[in-house]
Design goal:
By secondary structure, the chain is of the alpha/beta class. It has a single domain, classed as P-loop containing nucleotide triphosphate hydrolases (Rossmann fold, 3-Layer(aba) Sandwich), CATH 3.40.50.300. The chain is about 45% helix and about 20% strand. It has five helices and seven strands; from the N terminus they run ββαββαβαβαβα. The protein has a seven-stranded mixed sheet, sandwiched between helices. The protein is elongated. It binds guanosine-5'-triphosphate and magnesium ion. Magnesium ion (MG) binds next to helix 1. The site of magnesium ion has 4 residues, from helix 1.
Length: about 220
């Protein structure tokens, strides 16, 4: 299992809330894999014993990751097919996606690949930040998907992978931290690409300017 050291912690200073970057995260996965339970454990350290199928819920929380505050806006989606009308909209609006399956349910593991393809189809890019999560790792006696299979799929997706237990709060924070780190990495790459583009633009002008300068020199 991949793991992730962090310096994350809840932020108490609500004054800086408006200044820090907001991250729009979307929780995906088949019905009953534990999407709501993972979010609830992350936000409020509680584990819901019952399965209350989600239609759509949004949660906000603030956390420090690598000594930088982050406002997380987390969308908990419906796993059940009859509640999925908004899918394309949140696929477009989200910045990072948690694709979850249950290690006790092979079908949910196959669905994880479908979710990845759907993200690709809707966003038309391969570099969307994603974390793959195999939940219910406490139910070892019911395991249908091995850790190696999970790792293999994450390798295919080129994304971090965690086996979590919402029941025991294992690797819950790590999932969100890894996703925010990926978004930050992408932000940095975008800034670098822009700087490169601006430098190129500037050098074109420099080249264009030099003949003018020469002409001016000859006149004088
Ligand atoms: N043992 C165990 N049970 C879990 C875990 N996570 C969730 N569950 C249970 O699985 C059931 C479904 O959990 P939910 O969080 O409601 O699942 P969901 O993915 O949000 O389901 P939908 O909203 O219908 O898509 C509940 O009874 C949870 O208590 C876990 O890590 N371990
Ligand atoms: Mg739910």
């Amino acid at each position: 299992m991949d793991s992730c050291s962090s310096s994350a912690g809840r932020q108490t200073n609500s004054g800086s809330h408006s200044q820090s970057r907001e991250y729009k995260l979307v929780m995906l996965g088949e019905g009953g894999v534990g999407k709501s339970a993972i979010i609830m454990q992350f936000i409020s350290h509680r584990f819901p014993e019952d399965h209350d199928p989600t239609i759509e819920d949004a949660y906000k929380t603030q956390i420090r990751i690598d000594d930088e505050p982050a406002n997380l806006d987390i969308l908990d989606t419906a796993g059940q097919a009859e509640f999925t009308a908004m899918r394309d909209q949140y696929m477009r609006a989200g910045e990072g996606f948690i694709i979850s399956y249950s290690i006790t349910d092979r079908c949910s593991f196959h669905e994880a690949r479908e979710f990845k393809q759907l993200i690709h189809r809707v966003r038309r890019t391969v570099d969307t930040p994603v974390v793959l999560v195999g939940n219910k790792s406490d139910l070892v006696h019911l395991r249908q998907v091995s850790t190696d299979e999970g790792r293999g799929l994450a390798r295919e997706f080129s994304c971090p992978f965690f086996e979590t237990s919402a029941a025991l709060r294992h690797y819950i924070d790590d999932v969100f931290i890894a996703l925010v780190r990926q978004i930050r990495q992408r932000d940095k790459e975008a800034v670098l690409a822009l700087e490169r583009k601006n430098r190129k633009h500037a050098s074109v002008w420099k080249r264009l300017k030099s003949p003018f300068r020469r002409k001016k020199d000859t006149v004088n």
